[in-house]
Write a structure and sequence with these properties.
homodimer; about 190 residues; mainly alpha; Tetracycline Repressor, domain 2; 9 helices; elongated; DNA-binding
Chain lengths: ~190, ~190
DNA sequence: TGACGAAACGAACGTTCGTACTATTGTCGG
DNA sequence: CCGACAATAGTACGAACGTTCGTTTCGTCA
């Protein structure tokens, strides 16, 4: 159980990069094998099907997301600072992948294709949305946000900005995306406060 | 030049639906041929390459977008009513495709892949962003929006909501997306007004 | 009606896809 | 150091990919 898990991890590392630029479907087994310097069959043995590979890639992404975004944000003070931290860490995390957030790509690819991949995406995205909603609710409780703020709506607006940032950055590539998104987010925070 | 253009149009019609659900790359020539009841080679003859087919599909989408969103909105009164119309027509237009806005899918697929398709996406998306910015600027001039509003930022926020709506709708499929998005948009309008 | 160009066809090209088998290598505990 | 077993490579498969080819059907006008 030693060596195998290591190579599997290395494969998923490389797969995450490829999936972020090419998508989960274009992430081909032959291509991935060449990228990590293995034979197609040798790599294939680690995952018993392409669908399992796709799922494993998303699970690896989840793990990184928790480690890079969720956990560090939970260490921040409750309320607005934590909301702000979630946003900051999201921006950082997105930049860690050459093709941007792998979830973004995967959701577009699979939101109309039923199966275990779509199910997994739905589940994790719900969790992320719940976490955001909860963070907003706490900010209300703490008195940072106005009492009549709807946490769910706030979470949606938050997510919209995150998605929009991703798209703007990768399409225009003019370096203005981060400033623009920060401005929009500050405005969102403004209207969320008392 | 009669018959050929007709079938070409019919092909692109079907292709638009398929591309919105499957993506421009998964929109396979063989699959499309089967969908329209033609032979692969017969269909292929209309476009001299797959890249040309993809480009033609996007051009067909552009045409529909102008006819369904831009033009009718320009008939509305200048200022906020026109901005509102742009948003309303966007929501309608998006619903006309089984897999949602074909641009959304295409941008995610091609934003990291240089070529004529990406170039075309960049160009049309810039046009759309410019149109939105211009509409916001007019609303400022008319006194509907506050004088210090930044039209470009507003256009970005607008687009973010549109993208977010698309994703929410197709992933969750719980029927709450439109209400949620309208609420967020109303809030955006509120903060844009005096 | 005959002829001619446009449009659609069927078959085949070489390549790559995901997956199934079998063989070879590598890594450890006795 | 060796046997067991995990890990990787090799080979082959049927199907689908984009593309090309030569041929056949269709539409139109002399």
């Amino acid at each position: 159980m030693g060596k195998g898990a290591d190579t599997r991890g290395m494969i998923l590392d490389r797969a995450l990069s490829l999936a972020s630029t090419e998508g989960l479907e274009q992430l081909t087994i032959g291509l991935l094998a060449k990228a990590v310097g293995m034979s197609k069959s040798g790599l294939f043995a680690h995952f018993k099907s392409k669908e399992q590979l796709q799922l494993s890639v998303l699970e690896a992404a989840s793990e990184r997301f928790v480690r890079g975004v969720i956990s560090p944000s939970l260490k921040e003070p409750r309320g607005e600072p934590r909301v702000q931290a979630l946003f900051d860490h999201w921006l950082e995390w997105e930049a860690a992948f050459p093709g941007g957030c792998p979830y973004q790509t995967a959701i577009i690819e699979f939101d109309d294709r039923p199966g275990v991949v779509r199910d997994y995406l739905l589940e994790t995205q719900r969790d992320w949305q719940d976490a955001l909603t909860q963070a907003a609710r706490i900010a209300v409780d703490e008195g940072h946000f106005r009492a009549d703020l709807e946490p769910k709506t706030f979470a949606f607006q938050f997510t919209c900005l995150a998605i929009g940032y991703y798209q703007h950055k990768h399409l225009y590539r003019d370096g203005t995306s981060k400033t623009l998104t920060r401005k929009a987010f500050d405005q969102l925070l403004d209207s969320a406060r008392a």
